[in-house]
Amino acid sequence: MPVETRSLSERRANDPEYQDLKRRLIAEWRGESVEGDGPSILEETNAKGRVVHVIVTWDAWAAFDGLVRSEMIVDAFQAVRGEPAVVDLSLAMGLTRAEAARQRVG
Amino acid sequence: MFPARDFIRQNPETVQDLLPAGLARHAEARALVEAHPTGATYLAGYAVEMVLKHAALRTEGLLPHVPVFATLPAARQRLRVWLGDVDHDGYHSLEFWSLLLRETFRHRRGEVPALVAQASRRAALLHHGWSVALRYRDGIVSGVDAAELVSAAGWFVAQQEDLWS
User: Fold this and answer.
1) Chain B partners within 8 Å of A74 (Cβ)
2) Which end of chain B is more exposed for a tag (fewer CB within 10 A), N or C?
3) Chain B residue closest to A100 (CA)?
4) Chain-wide mean pLDDT for chain B?
5) Cβ A91–B73 below 8 Å, yes or no?
6) Is B75 on the interface with A (CB under 8 A)?
7) B121: closest CA among B80, B87, B81, B155?
8) Cβ–Cβ under 8 Å, residues A90 and A53
9) Domains of chain B: residue spans and CATH
10) Angle, nearest 10°, between helix axes B143-158 and B18-32?
11) Average pLDDT over residues B10-17
């Protein structure tokens, strides 16, 4: 059998649920979403006005753990804002509404 | 039985948890080094990982109460922009964290302090002597090699408060 090597990002690229959620997150970020229950995106900026923290509250990703949600936020952020902006990003936290309420976020 | 899984899910580790955990893992490594050299090596490397991770995240400006998991993908992406793809080995790689620490100082503070440069060189050596996958192994590290790594890890634990600003 031939050896097949693929990266984690390639695996995510082939995960239809991950890709669907990321597409919807990007659409929300770009203001193109028509979803009523889309993600709620909170951006926090530093003194220079650059986005350093992003907190997204969304029940649709309850099945994904916190690290995967964080990966998705960073991927989406880079798609929307570009590579120079991602250098300033230090926190990308994804929560459900219940988690956000428990942590008093948002 | 302590419900560790539920506890950790409801109380994810924060940046401020990293240093006491590193200190504890290093103390355990020292206690085990003669009887269980492979296990001691695993614990000692973990201590270094936590010191470097804490220093890199705090130097980036992250506050102590921030959950660590929410900082990792952004850290990976920053280092990718600065240096290109660096294997993070599930965010456990000593090389990844030492490079991120060094580059965070370079890009955020404009210079790399001598101590951080030294830490980066020492971590590069430890990177070859440690892998998180040691947790799946036993009996592959000699007592001499384990003592060397535990001692080297002690340097990082001793410098833990001076490696970030």
Assistant:
1) 73-74, 76-77
2) N
3) B10
4) 96
5) no
6) yes
7) B155
8) yes
9) 14-158 (1.20.120)
10) 150
11) 92
**Nearest to residue B159, comparing CAs of B19, B13, B59, B33?**
B19
B109: tokens are: 């503070």
Sequence spans of domains, chain A: 8-103
Looking at chain A, how many residues does it have? 106
Could you give the ipTM of this predicted complex? 0.87
| A17-37: pLDDT as tens digits | 999 999 999 999 999 988 788
Taking phi over 0 as left and psi of -120 to 50 as alpha, with beta for the rest, B25 belongs to alpha
CATH number for the domain whose boundaries are A8-103: 3.30.300
Q: Are strands A91-95 and A51-57 parallel, antiparallel or unpaired?
A: parallel
Are B95 and B69 in contact by the 8 Å Cβ rule? The answer is no
Quote the DSSP letter at residue B160.
T
* Ordered DSSP codes for B30-96: HHHTTT-HHHHHHHHHHHHHHHHHHHHHHHTT--TTSBGGGGHHHHHHHHHHHHS----TTTT-HHH
Per the CB < 8 Å rule, is A90 touching B107? no
- In the stretch 17-46 of chain A, residues with CB closer than 8 A to chain B read 46
Q: What is the pLDDT of residues B98-138, one digit of tens each?
A: 999 999 999 999 999 999 999 999 999 999 999 999 999 99
Contact partners, residue B27, CB within 8 Å, separation at least 6: none
